């Protein structure tokens, strides 16, 4: 039985290790360090798959220290104020 093609374009919610690292803009080794020290979330398990929740990655990325010059991060974290 064949399925109809999915014509809706949307990003995946669950990302493997390499995809999650690439999503936040770092390499897999640095991503592993960030997970170990709590700067990035722990993965979820789906049977034998290890996956990171893209939305959770967004939240952790927003909480990373920075110069507060990113208006999008301020809005997402509830700190929307004039720069």
Describe this structure in words.
The structure is a single chain. With 83 residues, the chain is α+β, with helices and mostly antiparallel strands. It has one domain (14-77). It is 40% helix and 12% strand. The protein is built from four helices and three strands, in the order E-H-H-E-E-H-H. Strands 1-3-2 form a three-stranded antiparallel β-sheet. A hairpin with a 2-residue loop joins strand 2 and strand 3 (49-53). Helix 1 (17-24) crosses helix 2 (28-36). It is globular. 6% of the residues are buried. The model has no long low-confidence stretch (mean pLDDT 87).
Sequence-ordered SSE layout with sheet pairings:
Layout (H helix, E strand, L loop, with lengths): L13 E2 L1 H8 L3 H9 L7 E3 L2 E5 H9 L8 H7 L6
Antiparallel strand pairs: 1-3, 2-3
Helix pairs in contact: 1-2
